[in-house]
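hey can u check if this looks right to u? its 307 residues, i copy pasted from the old doc so theres a chance i mangled smth
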Amino acid sequence: MVRKIGIIGMGNVGAALAHGLIAQGIGDHYVLIDPREDKVVADRLDFQDAMVNHSHFAQLTVNDYSALSDADIVVSALGNIQLQHNASEDRFAEFSFMQKEVPQVAASLKQSGFKGILLVISNPVDAVSALYQALTGFPKNRVIGTGTLLDTARMKRVVGERLGINPKSVSGYNLGEHGNSQFTAWSQVRVKGQAITDVLSKEELCDLAYASMKGGHTVFYGKGYTSYGIAATAIRIIQVILSDAQEELVVSSYHDALGTYVGYPAIIGREGRIGSIDLRLSSEEDQQLQTSAKLIRDRVFEALEKL
């Protein structure tokens, strides 16, 4: 069976994602879409040149929404990264841009007959995921965002650096908005099986939570954009979907109790979100989750009222 993946938006993130997928041989056919015709055509040529020296081969189609009709996954990688350069370092700075782009893409996806999984990278990812679902009418389980999976990776990295261990030995989650209202659920974090609250002080944990939340902006200010971390995050989700791994991932999916898309663990498989996880958070963490969800919910409501 041919594994077909669409990527809408071939900027720094979309290109890094396409390169990673092609190099690892994850898909057999890619549909690359971007309004900059010269750019996406050049990307196709560049990837075709690279494939001569890869051990994998894939078919590449550009700027053809109709080719998405039988795609397994479509990734929304649209965005305007320069809007992240704002005083409050708020990912919602891109929301006004996305409110103009999402309706057009949603209409094109519906017209194409696409029935696969829509994976959203575009920021603010929770709110944009909600917009896509509302405007396409796709089942909620089939529209998911990368959520706080990357923030969780950043948390594991800073904890690993602080303790001098491999970050893969750290388990736990960052939850809520992929943005400033997210938080690290320290009650869930374990280091080689030991509760991190038994290892580090509250002050140290606060510093690490802040460092993980601001990790993306640290990269952004260093090179002007982020790409590899989020591309790897999306690739992991795509692999889980295509293989029907039914794996627990902290993605942005619709949370019934919170009434919105939010970063929270879910079981992901071939049909998208196929199951839920019920965390036993502390009362403080539960309030943080409620606050973050309300922020997302309110912003989405305001956006939909304008459309």
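The chain has a mean pLDDT of 95.
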